[in-house]
Design brief:
The structure is a single chain. The chain is an alpha/beta fold and 396 residues long. It has a single domain, classed as TIM Barrel (Alpha-Beta Barrel), CATH 3.20.20.150. It has 15 helices and ten strands. The strands form three sheets. It has a five-stranded parallel β-sheet with strand order 4-6-8-9-10. Strand 1, helix 2 and strand 2 form a beta-alpha-beta unit. The protein starts with a helix and ends in a 6-residue tail after the last helix. The structure holds alpha-D-psicofuranose (PSV) and manganese (II) ion. The site of alpha-D-psicofuranose has 9 residues, from loops.
Length: 396
């Protein structure tokens, strides 16, 4: 590979960090059941320990996203314990995810619930989550709402929008300087008729209504099939409203498959839009890259390592597009040269350069191999096996 291309890849990798989800290490499943894994994390400490393994072999996952209900069983009182674990395992607490969907009170919604007492309960949880973020010095709070309805006519769609605006505005007023609120959208599931924040446009309007520290979070699995996600990304960038990503791949809906397993070109195109924007703006877009996957069949740590290395590969490939030539080709409507710039970058084998970059950082050239040879998996399977296989497993 030409030295110039290797330089580009090295430069891209320097800035690329991706956050792991604590929930991706625990036993999870589908609504039809769970297949328990002996190595799954059974406590928050084990989640930190597993995330630290992924970081040790990849060097690019210094933080872990936390879900308040699952990882802070005693709410704010759990903060000290999390801070201790973060120090012990050298992994920073990342994005804080309030849980506004599991409590029985939320059967008919949280911020969109017709009952003001339940909206207040949800808002209080949001306030507590924001305070958790402040105490842990974690910047982003990420809101995903299951709110919606299953049957036409059963929910006041406009009224619920107003309640969302009110609650998000109230939550935004609790943010400290520099803290951000990310608003995630999803077209359906668990609601099957209408979802209150169903797409990026709704999330964008609500973020604008909430205040200047609110941005949109794009979960790649939360789109209808065939939707042009990179166009959404480009629009959010141009509006200064792209806050972050939840990365996963999908074939049908929110399938939570490892990144790039189905459509790597899609993820490449997303990264391309970001890097093209940064080239034009001569600066970095402030985007939180996060994984949101929970694996039912693949080993959890291995699936995370696979996702992270594929993310690096696709980001590195995207960095190879010649932006100057692309801009000129687009301006001249030179279709085939323009398209080829993307295709050539995508088909370049960046793996040798990434291996070199890893070695230059003192990291293993092959993270998966290093992990599998470390003995960690055998050890935790033994230690946790009985605990995992005797229980029904738990999401938390
Ligand atoms: C919902 O499908 C979601 O994408 C949200 O980000 C949740 O926090 C996450 O999955 C965990 O279930
Ligand atoms: Mn998500």
């Amino acid at each position: 590979m030409q030295a110039k291309l290797t330089d580009k890849i090295f430069h891209a990798l320097e800035s690329f960090r991706i956050e792991l989800p604590s929930w991706g290490f625990a036993n999870t499943g589908t609504r039809f059941g769970k297949f328990l894994q002996p190595a799954a994390a059974t406590s928050i400490e084990e989640k930190f320990s597993d995330a630290a393994q992924v970081h040790a072999v990849t060097g690019v996952c210094p933080s872990v996203a936390l879900h308040v209900l699952w990882d802070f069983p005693r709410g704010l009182q759990s903060v000290e314990e999390i801070a201790r674990l973060a120090g012990r395992y050298g992994i920073k607490p990342g994005c804080i995810n309030p849980n506004l969907f599991q409590d029985q009170a939320y059967k008919f919604g949280s911020f969109g619930n017709p009952d003001p007492a339940i909206r207040e309960q949800a808002l209080q949880h949001a306030r507590d989550s924001i305070e958790i973020g402040q105490q842990l010095r974690s910047r982003d709070i990420s809101f995903w709402f299951a709110d919606g309805s299953n049957y036409p006519g059963t929910a006041g769609i406009r009224q619920r929008k107003r309640w969302f605006e009110e609650c998000l505005l109230a939550a935004h007023s609790e943010l400290a300087l520099g803290q951000r609120m990310l608003i995630e959208y999803k077209p359906f599931e668990p609601a099957f008729y209408h979802t209150d924040i169903a797409d990026w446009g709704m999330a964008l309007l609500l973020a604008r209504a909430a205040g200047p520290q609110a941005k949109v979070l794009v979960d790649t699995g939360h789109h209808y099939s065939a939707q042009n996600i990179e166009q959404i990304v480009a629009w959010l960038l141009s509006e200064g409203m792209l806050g972050g990503f939840h990365f996963n791949d999908r074939r049908y809906a929110d399938d939570d498959l490892t990144l790039g397993s189905i459509d790597p070109y899609q993820i490449f195109r997303i990264f391309h839009e970001i890097l093209y924007f940064q080239w034009e703006e001569k600066g970095r877009a402030d985007i939180a890259y996060m994984v949101d996957q929970s694996h039912n069949l693949k080993g959890k740590i291995e699936a995370m390592i696979q996702t992270v290395t594929v993310a690096q590969e696709l980001f590195a490939k995207a960095s190879l597009a010649d932006h100057k030539r692309l801009a000129a080709a687009q301006q001249g409507c030179d279709l085939i040269p323009a398209e080829s710039i993307l295709q050539d970058a995508f088909s370049t084998d960046v793996r040798p350069a990434i291996r070199e970059w890893r070695l230059s950082k003192g990291l293993p050239a092959d993270p998966m191999k290093a992990f599998l040879e470390s003995g960690y998996l055998e050890r935790i399977s033994q230690e946790r096996g009985a605990r995992n296989m005797s229980s029904a497993g738990s999401y938390a």
